[in-house]
Write a structure and sequence with these properties.
heterodimer, A: mainly alpha, 2 domains, 9 helices, elongated, B: Cytochrome Bc1 Complex, Chain D, domain 2, 15 helices, 0% strand, disordered N terminus
């Protein structure tokens, strides 16, 4: 009964929310599609949390995707123990990178008052679910070896049966509790995805990689102006300077990405 | 069948002869069932129950079923076989006792009709009354073990030789001594001492019909062939002999320290590399600006 609830009803409910609310939010509130960067408030700890986290999660999710799409090829690859060990160690590396990253990010959010001020309830939920997911994944990788092989043989048929709209729980019913919790938690993450900062993964600005250089034109000679405002002081300080006022543009151009 | 043959185009004599033959066959069928049904029941028991249960041979993963029909009511047995976990959840004391005694094993729900269960229970009752032990008829190797079988078995175990049915190699979930530097999987039990735990027919029967909850769903559609069974059986016979010092497998999952160490070292190195790669990140430009402002 509980199995039906969490392995049949939950995934379809989560998938429905994922698709419907994700689209609705994009159409209605497209400008909220962001992870609401807090880099401006704190950057150093963010870097040491965010970079390992993102490298780890991209690697780990890619691994799960490959297993899902090409299970028999993964089994073939794992046929040589040395190759199995390399694959498993790489997977564990990504998992541990995630763990280092998420723990740093949680610590940052707890300790930095500026970050706490901009933290919403959903942000907390996301961090907790991601931490649980990664911790379970690493636990399963370490204790129930070798996941890359039995995932392909045992969990993938279940996941595929969900996509085929003929859910078949036979394969996962006997799996250990930690594995089942890992699966259920993934469904929960999919369910809260459209309500959370996780939507940023749909609008990752990867076009930055191939867009042309942007020209940044500095309209005044900063060196000459050091210590002074670039525009004449007026009563309403901070007002935009009239066009053509001092100082003359220096024409310095910096190419930047 | 008989009515088909007794069409008007067939001569009357022939028709009568056929009718008599048909009647005789029906009579034979009526007298046969005892042995034929018991054969079918024995087959069913071997395929679906014998991996975990004996009749008269002692407990395995599950209890010895000798005399089980005397210990429990028929209705209870039907309900338990169909869904042991459901009965346990209901708080049935007998089910709870079994779950406790055989933990962490949990018998999976059996997709069987009431008729099948009745046939099975009748078979168990008969055997128990006769005080006989269940001996699987089909649990025989297709040929005697020859030199080189154990090595071939290890190649099958690790996956160097793919299984003909397309199933995952044993190493995905099981360990055996000699399976590689970091060992085999730990989702399932260590099989180094499999031949100590199981008698030969039991082991062969498991290879033929691995009816454990985790395995039956995977191998029902990817069975081993006769040759693979011989070679894996040879491997299991040799594993304990070759490594008598290997301790009996412990229950529950365990960690492989070398695997953890590799993962840990790789993570530390990766983070160190990232630091090296980005050590000037966000430092150069901004620090320069701040310094300039202060001058």
């Amino acid at each position: 009964m509980i199995d039906n609830l969490v392995f049949i009803i939950l995934p379809y409910a989560a998938a429905t929310l994922f698709v419907v609310v994700t689209i609705q939010r994009y159409v209605r509130k497209g400008f909220t599609y962001s992870s609401l960067s807090s880099q401006f408030l704190e950057t150093r700890e963010l870097f040491y949390g965010s970079v390992p986290w993102h490298i780890g999660i991209l690697g780990a999710m890619f691994g799960h995707l490959i297993g899902f799409l090409f299970p028999s090829q993964v089994l073939w690859f794992n046929g040589v123990p040395a190759r199995l060990y390399v694959l498993e160690s790489t997977g564990l590396l990504f998992g541990l990178m995630c763990l280092v990253g998420i723990v740093s990010l949680i610590a940052r959010r707890l300790t930095s008052p500026r970050i706490r001020a901009v933290t919403s309830k959903v942000d907390v939920l996301v961090l907790v679910l991601l931490f649980v997911q990664v911790a379970l994944g690493v636990y399963v990788a370490l204790f129930y070896r070798w996941g890359s092989s039995w995932y392909a043989a045992s969990a993938v048929p279940y996941l595929r049966s969900l996509f085929a709209l003929e859910p078949d729980l036979k394969m996962i019913a006997p799996l250990p509790l930690a594995v089942k919790l890992h699966i259920v938690n993934a469904f929960l993450l999919a369910a809260i995805f459209p309500f959370s900062r996780l939507v940023h993964m749909l609008v990752v600005p990867i076009h930055y990689l191939w867009r042309p250089y942007q020209l940044v034109v500095w309209n005044w000679n900063r060196r000459r102006l050091r210590g002074r405002a670039p525009w004449p002081k007026t009563e309403t300080s901070g007002a935009v300077a009239p066009a053509g006022s001092e100082p003359a543009p220096s024409g310095r151009t910096i190419a930047a990405r | 069948m008989i009515s088909n043959f007794s069409s008007p185009s067939v001569s009357a004599g022939f028709s009568i002869a056929l009718t008599c033959l048909g009647a005789a066959m029906l009579l034979l069928a009526a007298t046969l069932p005892a042995s034929a049904q018991s054969q079918a029941a024995a087959d069913m028991f071997e395929k679906r129950c014998y991996s975990c249960h004996n009749i008269g041979g002692g407990d395995k993963k599950g209890p010895d079923l000798k005399g089980v029909t005397g210990r429990q009511r028929t209705a209870w047995l039907h309900e338990f076989i169909k869904s042991p976990a459901a009965l346990n959840r209901k708080g049935d004391p007998a089910a709870a006792d079994l779950f406790k005694k055989f933990a962490p094993e949990v018998m999976s729900d059996q997709d069987m009709t009431d008729e099948e269960i009745t046939t099975l229970l009748t078979f168990i009752e008969d055997l128990s009354k006769k005080n006989e032990q269940f001996i699987p008829a089909g649990a025989k190797l297709s040929r005697p073990i020859a030199a080189g079988d154990s090595e071939a078995g290890l190649r099958l175990f690790t996956g160097k030789t793919a299984l003909s049915g397309g199933g995952a190699s044993c190493m995905a979930c099981h360990n055996i001594s000699g399976a590689g530097l970091l060992g085999g999987g730990t989702l399932g039990p260590d099989l180094t001492a499999a031949n100590v735990k199981y008698r030969d027919p039991e082991l062969i029967s498991i290879l033929q019909n691995p009816n454990f909850p985790t395995m039956n769903s995977v191998f029902a559609t990817h069975p081993l062939n006769d040759e693979e069974i011989v070679q894996l059986f040879a491997l299991f016979q040799n594993a304990k002999l070759a490594n008598p010092a290997v301790p009996a497998p412990t229950a529950g999952p365990s960690i492989e320290p070398r695997f953890l160490l590799i993962g840990f070292a790789a993570t530390v190195m990766a983070i160190a590399c990232l630091n090296l790669l980005w050590r000037k990140r966000l430092r150069g430009v901004r620090l320069l600006i701040v310094r300039r402002r202060r001058q």
